[in-house]
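REQUEST ID: PR-0412
SUBMITTED BY: lab tech R.K.
PRIORITY: routine
TASK: structure prediction, single protein chain
INPUT:
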Amino acid sequence: MNVKLHALIPSKRRFVQLYTVLLYNANLTGFAQGTIYQGPTKNVCVPGLNCYSCPGAVGACPLGALQNALSSSDSRFPYYMLGTLLLFGTLLGRVICGFMCPVGLIQELLHKIPTPKIPKSPITRTLSLLKYVILVVFVIAIPLHYAVRDIPLPGFCKFICPAGTLEGAIGLLSHPRNSNLFNMLSILFTRKFIILVLFIGFSVFMFRPFCRFICPLGAIYSFFNRISVFGVRVDLSKCTHCSRCIRECHMDVKEIGDRECIQCACCMDVCATHAISFKAGKWTIMDPYKGLSEKTADVKDAAANIVKRSVDGQISLDAREISSTKINPDLSADPSSGQKDQ
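STATUS: complete
OUTPUT:
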């Protein structure tokens, strides 16, 4: 297949992201009528960040629901929301960020615009801690502070969230029947609109800046990254610790599966020894050999074994020699076995 044509075909992960956006926003009549869906499914949270006020939204945003629950915590404990986040976290962790978040998809599409890009660095790794500060201040502290005064105030939604501005505010204001809402706009909307513009602009030049530096929902899910059932796993018996997966990753990861890893599994394609796979507990869902014939898989496994032994210092072999050598999968990776047949 032509390389340029192949690059235009969406990956499996991209299809999952697109299906998720459609599933979260399946109320198409809401877009046509400029109204917010109020059906029974709105009592259930979707895993990713998707504004409750979006005309198409059929479920609640977990971040908004958490803030509302904390705003009412003076009268009742937020068992439902804490249980929901615990379920999503232990089951999926930041797989939600990599596969099931509409805001993440928007950023990735914006980042595809051909412009000079800002690479990750120790500075961006430090800035990634900012989302935890935002989580504590805007998602937890502000709602709890105003809950004492019996004033519901979802701090993040009200003062920062660009998803609410894009999906909720602009989604409703774009419909002619809601033209009267323009008279209700205040300086608060102007500030949030500026945040949205900055979010869009930075997404063009930097990979997923909202997820890396701002998103408190991603911060919550990051606490579960090491223990979640679904996620990327590294086979240490195959890993050569070459760090290529870390260098190629656009996120501020120090190792695969740490708090900044969004479990997108893109690192599987760059691992020379095929040590990375995507698993659900003990079951492998995606691996480098998926869909390959047994013979092809044996060849790739033999090549990976040679690469690992070369890196480990057991044999000396140039990478160009590997790529130009036809490997017989029936032979062992021991180079002496090839000499015996000569």
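NOTES: The chain has a mean pLDDT of 85.
REVIEWED BY: pending
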